[in-house]
């Protein structure tokens, strides 16, 4: 049923605005972290409520991604993209003028809601706009670099805005970005004819998936603050398991599921979701520890701390655009993803050697460059493979799954590695008699221990990429030996090789 669809002549201009929107969503996950201490002091937010400035966003975003992705499939990706942009801008404005805790938390939750519409719409627009192999490689090279590096850019931007302007600008900065992207989307982005999903929305699926994902992300949030055996933590995980199992059962029975199980059960697609989600555990955990290390142990300012991550961004852009994009049509995706994760793991391995007096240039810098280079190389084919060859009418929900895997991975990474670091710090400190003069040494020991775990996590991501992802090149080249059959999704309106993504 494939038919040739005329390419959007302004697709490269469209890429600019799609990428801008993606940058806004990704950097918002970290830009507020740097501004949080100032916001807490200004609004009188209690220590107990402080985490909700972050959690309100992550819960809404992570819980509603599948719904947002399917909404884009049904209502039209351009329409949902623009609604998401305008809603995100409005929520950012409300957060920026917040006069009290409740107003700020409500705005952050609203940002998460509109972000959950925006992120899958952006990725699915990219997937259906760029279908020719070489163009797709270049487009996803840019998008992959932004998706991977946005968090680190947020750390830099948050530091600059907080130190030189005001914490409120960490929210206000979204407004011009969103308005520029909205104007561009209106003028140059086109929905692909015939790519709309005309089925009714699966309401039971929406409710079960949203509740299940919220419970899962909340469980990791509680684990970070209260411990893994706390009643709220265990209860959240149990609720998440029950709700998500019920969701899978419902999706297997309804005529028009929110998430067609073929999106999850195809081997290569599942491998991408799993490998990327696991790799993000290590990367996001490192953001947290390195930020504390540079600011608390080294005494660096927020701006200098943010700038310290710049080499990682450069490495990520280089890996995505100069390695991943150039090789994607020449080698199988696993030969980029697997080695990419291993290079990132090598960067983490270097960082396990950090000490209180470690040199930035001699230790931190090479570790960050290798981490960025490896993740950029792996991110690029993974982002493309997550949507390549899928039915256009399912592109939104397939895109939502890649965002969901990253969101869950980030939540796990923050909670799990923070727990490991805290336990190691306490044990080291107690063993040495609790000498206050050793507090920084204890903290750095905890960070290094947690980064060792991140090394193992990255190695596991590489193993999954090598073993699960067995498809051929993304120019339609033959699959490697042992490839599973291709997708049975042939009802799309876009003439791309369905090699399984």
TrEMBL record:
CDD domains linked to this entry: MFS_MMR_MDR_like
Transmembrane regions: 12-39, 51-68, 80-99, 105-128, 140-161, 167-189, 201-221, 227-250, 271-294, 300-319, 331-351, 363-388, 408-430, 450-469
SUPFAM superfamilies to which the protein is assigned, alphabetical: MFS general substrate transporter
Domain called Major facilitator superfamily (MFS) profile: residue spans: 14-474
Chief subcellular location: membrane
Annotated InterPro entries: EmrB-like, MFS, MFS_dom, MFS_trans_sf, Sugar_transporter_CS
UniProt keyword annotations, A-Z: Cell membrane, Membrane, Transmembrane, Transmembrane helix, Transport
Topology with respect to the bilayer: Multi-pass membrane protein
The keyword Transferase appears for this protein: no
The keyword Methyltransferase belongs to this UniProt entry's keyword annotation: no
Subcellular location: Cell membrane
Pfam families from the UniProt entry: MFS_1
Family matches, as PANTHER family: BLR6921 PROTEIN, MAJOR FACILITATOR SUPERFAMILY MULTIDRUG TRANSPORTER MFSC
Protein name (Swiss-Prot/TrEMBL): MFS transporter
Organism, scientific name: Plantactinospora solaniradicis
Source species taxonomy: Bacteria, Bacillati, Actinomycetota, Actinomycetes, Micromonosporales
């Amino acid at each position: 049923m494939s038919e040739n669809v005329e390419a959007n002549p302004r697709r490269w201009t469209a890429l600019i605005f799609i990428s801008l929107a993606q940058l806004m969503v990704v950097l918002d996950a970290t830009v507020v972290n740097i501004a949080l201490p100032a916001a807490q002091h200004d609004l009188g937010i209690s220590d107990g409520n402080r985490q909700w400035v972050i959690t309100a966003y992550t819960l809404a975003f992570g819980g509603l991604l599948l719904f947002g992705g399917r909404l884009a499939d049904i209502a039209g990706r351009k329409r949902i993209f623009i609604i998401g942009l305008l809603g995100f801008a409005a929520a950012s404005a409300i957060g920026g003028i917040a006069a009290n805790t409740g107003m700020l938390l409500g705005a952050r939750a609203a940002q998460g809601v509109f972000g959950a519409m925006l992120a899958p719409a952006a990725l699915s627009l990219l997937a259906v706009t760029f279908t020719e192999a070489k163009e797709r490689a270049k487009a996803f090279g840019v998008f992959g670099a932004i998706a991977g590096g946005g968090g680190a850019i947020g750390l830099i931007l948050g530091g600059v805005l907080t130190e030189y302007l005001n914490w409120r600008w960490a929210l206000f900065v979204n407004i011009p970005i969103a308005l520029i992207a909205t104007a561009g989307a209106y003028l140059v982005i086109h929905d692909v004819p015939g790519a709309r999903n005309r089925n009714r929305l699966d309401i039971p699926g929406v409710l079960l998936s949203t509740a299940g994902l919220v419970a899962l992300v909340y469980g990791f949030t509680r684990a970070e603050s209260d411990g893994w055996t706390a009643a709220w933590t265990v209860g959240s995980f149990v609720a998440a398991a029950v709700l998500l199992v019920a969701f899978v059962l419902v999706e297997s029975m309804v005529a028009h599921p929110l998430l067609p199980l073929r999106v999850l059960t195809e081997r290569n697609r599942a491998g991408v979701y799993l490998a990327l989600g696991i790799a993000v555990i290590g990367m996001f955990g490192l953001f947290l520890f390195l930020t504390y290390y540079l600011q608390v142990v080294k005494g660096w300012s927020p701006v200098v701390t943010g700038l310290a991550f710049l080499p990682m961004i450069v490495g990520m852009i280089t890996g995505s655009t100069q390695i991943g994009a150039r090789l994607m049509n020449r080698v199988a995706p696993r030969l980029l993803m697997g080695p990419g994760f291993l290079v990132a793991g090598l960067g983490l391995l270097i960082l396990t050697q950090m000490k209180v007096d470690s040199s930035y240039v001699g230790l931190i810098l090479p570790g960050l460059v290798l981490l960025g280079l490896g993740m950029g190389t792996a991110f690029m084919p993974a982002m493309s493979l997550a949507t390549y060859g899928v039915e256009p009418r399912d592109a939104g929900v397939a895109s939502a799954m890649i965002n969901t895997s990253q969101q869950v991975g980030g939540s796990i990474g923050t909670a799990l590695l923070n727990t490991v670091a805290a336990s190691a710090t306490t044990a080291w400190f107690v063993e040495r008699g609790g000498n206050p003069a050793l507090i920084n040494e204890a903290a750095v020991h905890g960070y290094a221990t947690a980064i060792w775990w991140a090394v193992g996590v990255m190695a596991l991501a590489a193993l999954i990429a090598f073993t699960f992802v067995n498809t051929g090149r993304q120019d339609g080249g033959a699959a490697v030996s042992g490839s599973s059959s291709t997708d049975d999704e042939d009802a799309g309106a876009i003439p791309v090789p369905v090699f399984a993504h």
